[in-house]
Amino acid sequence: MAVPRSHPRRESLLVREKLVRGLERGLVAREGLMAHGRGEAFDYLLGEATGRHARKALRAAAAVLLLAERPIISVNGNVAALCAAEAVRLARAARARMEVNTFYGDGGRRARIAAELERRGARGVLGANPESRGRLAGTSRSRGAADKEGILAADVVVVPLEDGDRTSALKAAGKQVITFDLNPLSRTARTADITIVDNITRGMDELARLCREYSARGAPALSRIVRNFDNGANLAACIREMTAGLRRQWIA
Ligand code: ATP
Ligand code: MG
After folding, report:
1. Which of 46, 163, 206 to mutate to test the pocket of ligand 1 (most atoms within 8 A of CB)?
2. Long-range contacts for 187-193 (Cβ within 8 Å, ≥24 apart)?
3. From CA 194, how far away is CA 179, in angstroms rounded?
4. Which of 92, 109, 131, 201 is the one with CA 20 to 30 A from 249?
5. Ligand nearest, relative to CA of residue 76
6. What are the φ and ψ backbone dihedral angles of 186, each rounded to 5 degrees?
């Protein structure tokens, strides 16, 4: 379906089309469409723009990634459909490996997501090889799969659009968790160390850019950025940003 250039919601409709194409190509799970719908509602409240507090979280996330020993970028179907090239750029800028991480579905979908990342230039994508699969403690077999060389061995994991149970399991396993989540109230948003309340269609490339920008900085400067970041306070500020936007548009 062609989206008219003048349509006021053109951007958002084009993103939906990308997801539907991802579903048809066997990358996206049906459940992924609903997760996107929930994210869209919060993006509406944000004015569909990267806010001041998302930028603060992006800077802290870039610093944590550059300080990491074994960082991993986790990719699910929605990430593969919406920003595969940007995620590959982030992995390169952060010197991180990539791991396919799916909540629903079978190995076929994991293999297709890995192939999509490799088509965009990624090398050695983890998560699609059954021999290297382990499990995060405290999760069920189907929901807790993780790669022994990847997430299970990592110190820092970027898990965009992650489920709350898995995020808790990652924290219990001692990982530093960075997430993208448009819903500042979700369990993942509240459990992660750094929650970027922004759409991955905008934020992923910005995080890659910040990693490149900060790559020449030393550890003390990066550690200072991390120390000055408080995720709970930042989430509260994101919620205030949303309510202030609503008030400006509808109540004032
Ligand atoms: P939780 O399990 O953490 O409580 P949930 O069950 O409400 O969250 P999930 O489907 O588990 O939701 O996780 C998907 C999350 O990703 C949702 O919070 C949703 O708002 C968010 N999300 C969806 N699409 C995007 C997007 N394009 N960019 C950023 N966040 C998104
Ligand atoms: Mg959930």
Report:
1. 163
2. 188/159, 188/162, 188/163, 188/164, 189/235, 190/232, 190/235, 191/164, 191/167, 192/159, 192/162, 192/167, 192/231, 193/64, 193/231
3. 6
4. 201
5. 1
6. -65, 160
* CB 191, CB 218: distance < 8 Å: no
Q: Among 38, 48, 58, 102, which is best to mutate for testing ligand 1, by the most ligand atoms less than 8 A from CB? A: 38
Q: Where are the domains of the chain?
A: 52-243
Distance from the CA of 7 to the center of ligand 2, in angstroms? 32
Q: What pTM value is reported for the model?
A: 0.96
Closest atom of ligand 1 relative to the 42 alpha carbon: 20
Q: How many CB atoms lie within 10 A of CB 228?
A: 11
| Model confidence pLDDT, tens digit, residues 64-99 | 999 999 999 999 999 999 999 999 999 999 999 999
Q: What digits encode the pLDDT tens for the residues 155-178?
A: 999 999 999 999 999 999 999 999
Q: Which CATH architecture has domain 52-243?
A: 3-Layer(aba) Sandwich (3.40)
Dihedral through CA 36, CA 173, CA 238, CA 28, nearest 10?
Answer: -10
- Closest-CA residue, ligand 1 atom 19, reads 39
